Amino acid sequence: MFDNAILSAAAENVKEMSIGDAAVTAIFGYAVVFAGLVILMILLYCTGAYFKSKDAKAKAAADAAKAAAQKEAPAQPETKAEAPLAPGSAGHVKLFDVPDKEAAMIMAIVADKMQKPLNELHFISIKEVK
Fold first, then answer.
1. What pLDDT score does 88 carry?
2. What letter does residue 126 receive in the DSSP assignment?
3. Domain definitions of the chain by residue range
């Protein structure tokens, strides 16, 4: 019985709403949704800017610490050849435009295809062909 009263009241309101009222209601609804999207966009932009500035400050602090450490330490050439070789290794590999992880995967694939242990193979260099 109560449901019938609500439905009849809603039906009366719909009949009384003119096209102009419906247009105003629709425009107001679209405006509310658009404003919500704009607020969300601004919030995400501000959050991104905050984290970018935080990362930039951390990077600047790390660069400053590295520069200070280089000033304090005497200039020494950085060479990888001075590092001791791992047991069973076949020496150093020169990498040209190839990250270490990809070079390791390439060496593992070659060793698997050749059916030989990796420590029996000697890789001189790995270069990306472009």
1. 59
2. E
3. 2-72, 94-127
